[in-house]
Amino acid sequence: MRLGVPKEIKNHEYRVGLVPSSVRKLVYYGHQVYVETNAGLGAGMNDADYPAAGATILYFCLTCSEFVAFKPIFVFISFKSKVALLRSA
User: Fold this and answer.
1) How far is 49 from 57, CA to CA, in rounded Å?
2) CA–CA separation, 54 vs 36, rounded Å?
3) Contact 3, 71 (CB under 8 A)
4) CATH number, domain at 80?
5) What pTM was estimated for this model as a whole?
6) DSSP code for 67
7) Which has more confidence, 88 or 37?
8) Mean of the per-residue pLDDT values of the chain
9) Whole-angstrom Cα distance, residue 89 to residue 25?
10) What is the tally of structural domains in the chain?
11) What residues contact residue 75 under an 8 Å CB cut-off, 6+ apart?
12) Domain residue limits at 19
């Protein structure tokens, strides 16, 4: 299963959909995890933490429609991020 973790866009939203320890468990069980660059920054996790746990960081700037076309199951915190991502697809 592919899981995508986009960066949250809501003001003052510092949480992230998956932390590196969760990513490690998901990857261990055979899932593919893709994390948008700087997604965990507000929660104190940098981009290097995620590949160390087995995720792939999407460093290049994806438009929302490209991220949706990638067809992962998304892991969101805020509803606003979900609506923005789906509207742009």
Assistant:
1) 10
2) 14
3) no
4) 3.40.50.720
5) 0.73
6) H
7) 37
8) 79
9) 30
10) 1
11) 3, 4, 5, 17, 18
12) 2-87
